[in-house]
Structure formats: C-alpha cells, structure tokens
UniProtKB/TrEMBL annotation:
It comes from Cenarchaeum symbiosum (strain A). Residues 3-257 form the Pyruvate carboxyltransferase domain. This is 2-isopropylmalate synthase. It is an enzyme of class 2 (transferase). Keywords: Acyltransferase, Amino-acid biosynthesis, Branched-chain amino acid biosynthesis, Leucine biosynthesis, Transferase. GO terms for molecular function: 2-isopropylmalate synthase activity. The keyword Amino-acid biosynthesis applies. Gene3D superfamilies: 1.10.238.260, 3.30.160.270, Aldolase class I. It catalyses: 3-methyl-2-oxobutanoate + acetyl-CoA + H2O = (2S)-2-isopropylmalate + CoA + H(+). Its EC number is 2.3.3.13. Pathway: Amino-acid biosynthesis; L-leucine biosynthesis; L-leucine from 3-methyl-2-oxobutanoate: step 1/4.
Amino acid sequence: MRIRIFDTTLRDGEQTPGVSLSPEQKLQIARMLDELGVDAIEAGFPVISEGESKAVKMIATAGLSADICGLARADKRDIDAAADAGLDYVHLFIATSDIHLKHKLMMDREEAVRRAISSIEYAKSRGMKVEFSAEDATRTERGFLRDFFKQVAEAGADRADIPDTVGYSTPAYMAEITRDAVEATGLPVSVHCHNDFGLAVANTISGLQAGATCAHVTINGIGERAGNASLEELVMALQCLQFDEARSTGIHTEKLYGTSRAVSGLVGIQVQPNKAIVGENAFGHESGIHTHGVLSNPLTYEPISPELVGHTRRLEVGKHAGLHGMNAMLGEYGVKPTAEQSKVILSRVKALGDQGKKVTDVELLSIAGEVIGEPGLRRMVQLSGFSVSTGIGTMPYAFVKLNVDGKEFSATDYGVGPVDASLSAMQKITGEIAEVRIREYGLASISGGSNALCEVTIGVEDAKGNKASARSVGEDIVTTSVQAVIDGMNRIMLKKMLGGKKTRG
Ligand SMILES: CC(=O)SCCNC(=O)CCNC(=O)[C@H](O)C(C)(C)COP(=O)(O)OP(=O)(O)OC[C@H]1O[C@@H](n2cnc3c(N)ncnc32)[C@H](O)[C@@H]1OP(=O)(O)O
Ligand SMILES: CC(C)C(=O)C(=O)O
C-alpha cells in the first residue's frame, strides 16, 4: 500500500519554541521537501502574521509537485486567510477533548460540532479541499470522537486526521481509534503524532496498520515540545522493517541526510548525535567488537547501509576501541604498525579514554607517529598569516593566509563573530583546494577565569565523504579554532593523497 507523507515541518515543526523562518527560508525548505518526494506540504498557518501569509503564498505558487496546504482554526478569518494565500487545500481543526473544550475553548461538545460543521461548509464554499483534525483526539471520549468524525465527514470534509496532540496515546489505542475513524467517516484518514513519550513513530505506524493512509511528520522530528513523528524514521521503518503488509512512500531516501542537515541549519536546531537514521552516530562505531564486525560486513552492526539515506559510515577510536578498527583507521593514512606497535598504540588510546577524553584522528596519528618512531606525518597545510577584527558596531571580519604545499592562498570573510568569520574565510580557501567543509564544531572551556584554556573539537569532511576529527587546545579561541580546522584538513588531504583503504562511508 502507498502511504501519503504529509510534511508539517513548516507548520508544526516551525512551532518549535524559538524557531521562526523568513518567507524565503520557508520556500527554500518547501523546495527541498518537494525534491525529497513528500506528497503534501503544510506550508504554514496563514492567519498568524503577514510574513506567514506571504510565505504560504510563495510556496503555493512555486509550481511544486506536492499538494500545498495551510492550517486554519474553525474560524472564518482563518479560512479567508488560507484562501487569500492562494490555497485550495486547508487543514481545519478544533479541539474535542473535554479538557480543551472546558478550559481552553469554553464551549461544550455540541458547540464544537457546530463550529466544525460551519467551518467545513465555509471552507468548501471558498473552493478548498478540507482535511479536518479533532485536536487532542487521543484524550477525547471515544464515543464522542467517533460521532464527531462522522459529522465531519457528513459536512463534506475530504480527509480526517487524528492528532495525538500531547503524545498521550499508546500504539494499541491509536489503532483502536483509527479503526473507529475509518469506519465512521469512510474518508482517507491521517495520523498526527507527537513525541512526548517517545512513541510518535510507533503510534504513527500503529495508526497506519489500522487503516490510516497518511502520516503527518516533520524533518528531524522537530515540533512542539518533544516534537512530532520524524519523517526519516517513519519512512525508513516502513521501508525496511517487517510488517503485516508492505507499505511504501514516494520519498527519495538517499536525500534524507542532506535534507535533515539543511533543515537543521535553517531552523538552528542541531540534530542529536544518536538520532536514528540521520544523527552523526547513526552509522558511527567505536567499540572494537563492532568495528571488527563492520569491517568484515557492515550489516553485522548496521541495520541498513548509510548510502540508502545519503549518510556515511564513521569509525572512531577511544576507550572501547579494538585492534582491527584502529589499524583500519591508521591504514587510511598509510600508517601500518607492527602487531606489537599496534598494541602499544591502542593502550595509549585507551589510557586517554580512561581520562574521559574523546580521541580524535589527529591524536591517533600523533600517538602512532611516536610509537612507530616516524617523524610526525607531513603537514601539507600551514597557517602563514591570520588576523581578525571584532567589536561593537562593527561586523566581525577575518583574514586568513594558508600555505598549501608551498603555495600561498588567502581569503577574507565576515561572520557573526571572529570564529565564524575565520572559519568562513578558511572554508573559502578549502573550497578551492580541498573541498573540506566543517561538519562539527565544539568549543569548551577547560579551566576557569578570563585566561581559561579553551578546547576546540572539530569534524571536517570532504566532498567524497572522507571525514576527520581534530582537537586543539589554546588560550585564544579564534586561533585555536583555526588550528583545529587546519589539523583536520591535513588529515583529509593526507588520506586523499595516500588513497588508503576507505573504512568510512
Ligand atoms: C495543536 C496545535 O498545534 S494548534 C496550532 C498552534 N499554533 C499556533 O498557535 C501558532 C501561532 N499562533 C498565533 O500566532 C496566535 O495564537 C493566533 C494568531 C492564532 C491567535 O492569536 P490571538 O488572537 O492573540 O489569540 P491567542 O493565541 O491568545 O488565543 C487563541 C485563541 O484561539 C481560539 N482557538 C483555539 N483553537 C481554536 C480553534 N480550533 N477554532 C477556533 N478558535 C480556536 C482560542 O479560543 C482563543 O480565542 P480567544 O482569543 O477568542 O480567547
Ligand atoms: C492542529 C493539530 C493537528 C495539531 O497540530 C496537533 O493537534 O498537534
């Protein structure tokens, strides 16, 4: 069965506290969602502001393949705003649980039904298709919910949606009320699940198994409080796990990781490393037993291949590392220790781990260099000049000069602060010579006071998915950041030059 993916990143996702997108940013995300292959995009809630109405209009007229929809309360002004934004598809809602009716809407059940019916009739009179949500459905008295949906269908709604507004349902209950709604309405039914108890995807799947044909989801699971059902998790679960019946979607799964990162950047919310499918660690391994297995056959410790979702594999060393994984990582840099040397290198890596430290690629290589007795691995990139200016009433600015294998490159750029400006300037250079991008940046203070030492940990990646991590410690956060990036770049360039066996990606 083909499942309809209704993406609400731009509406419920944007309701994440602290997130606001400009119309241009919303259009940019809508285009990405369309390319990803979603069936419907909830572009926004047109009545809430001028910018929101403009954004919805821009998306509605952008010629996208997905159906474009907007949210409206059971209220004429909201419906007019949706129609005026150029929509022919509106998502109407009214709460049906007693707690919402009594304490929020101050109306009884009969009034809620009347408001639902009149809003559907009005939206239809304005030429729009209607998807109707019974807000807080899962805390609504079951008999009333069933009756409510029946009347919504009789009033002319085209689709019915079951929101688990505060993530309160269990999968079993979601299935029961989905069956009720399908029977009562005879309409295509959607499910809209929140993640307050971490069950949003499980509840969504349960609703789909019980007869719903559409899932409301967001990229990275962003949304109110603990968020909504995550698009990437749901889509991959439907595609890869065993269910009673096969359910497919139109999502181009190889675009999932890129879309996740792009949305994360635009909304300003980092994806947690252990997030399923798209987190940095979703295909990352440190434990020796795991890296050993993965090197032989990745499916030993990965349920799916990272390429399927546009992600890459990453091996790391640390306290839990083993010889096979560590030697494979060193092999990428052309470093081949003897069996005895490997044991010594690993014990020093573990000693760092025992001190509670993350061990970066640069540290692994410098330990290996010391143990093998080879001079440090060649630095192709060196910092040969650098200055920044910052202050109040001035735009932070950086000048960076790098010596790359004897050739000088320089770049300048602005940024939100001196670190940002320096990293942007560096990226201009690295874009030219090595296409290295910074995928992770962490800054921590490791001693107190204004003369504190800072520690910068950085992850860099090239266009081919080669990754390297580096750490630098110093007194000046800008210089330390630049040094960490340069260390990471050196590792990537060395890896490319040596063309060692690739253990990642
Ligand atoms: C579960 C969900 O995600 S629902 C969607 C939630 N999203 C948002 O709220 C996003 C943006 N919201 C806003 O910008 C504003 O809240 C607006 C523009 C919608 C309304 O702003 P205000 O007029 O200042 O009202 P306020 O937000 O304080 O209160 C909500 C009003 O909507 C009413 N309301 C809530 N749900 C509905 C509904 N489904 N149908 C009709 N009226 C509703 C409330 O009763 C209250 O009405 P009142 O002002 O007459 O008392
Ligand atoms: C408007 C509705 C569908 C909603 O977002 C919710 O109940 O979570």
